[in-house]
Amino acid sequence: MPTLTYNYKKFGPYLKPVIFLNIHYKKISRSTLALIDSGADKCIFHADLGQLLGIDVLSGPLETIGGIASDGSKTPKFIKGYLHKVGITIKGETRNIDALFSPDIADWGFAVLGQLGFFDKFESIQFDYKNHKIIIEA
What we know:
The chain has one helix at 47-52; strands at 3-7, 9-11, 14-16, 18-25, 28-36, 43-46, 62-70, 76-90, 93-102, 111-113, 124-128, 133-137. It is mainly β. The chain has a single domain, classed as Acid Proteases (Cathepsin D, subunit A, domain 1, Beta Barrel). Strands 4, 5, 6, 7, 8, 9 and 10 form a 7-stranded mixed β-sheet that branches. Strands 1-12-11 form a 3-stranded antiparallel β-sheet, with no helix packed on it. It has a two-stranded antiparallel sheet with strand order 2-3. It is globular, with a radius of gyration of 15 Å.
């Protein structure tokens, strides 16, 4: 089984487990940055990326996504995501996944690689913050 190793990337004063990947749908592929997030339930991409891939984003099953967002009240804030089947490729390793595409993600926000669709598709994923490495056993 191949071992894929990445370096953390620096954004401002912070190091983040962010990687480049190719996402593909039918015969269209795009490269994007994605944050590997062990606390995220699913993989989430911006709806604009889905449209660039030729996906009719709003045609997918609707899911609501909650987490850290707030509108200032005590009521949790949820965003909308639409589920679609896509492929992702990192360093030559391709996986078919179910991913959410959301128009509510900030334009400057990263795609998110979560438990379902990323962590469950690889043998193991390790974060080595001290050495600034992400190790993925394919």
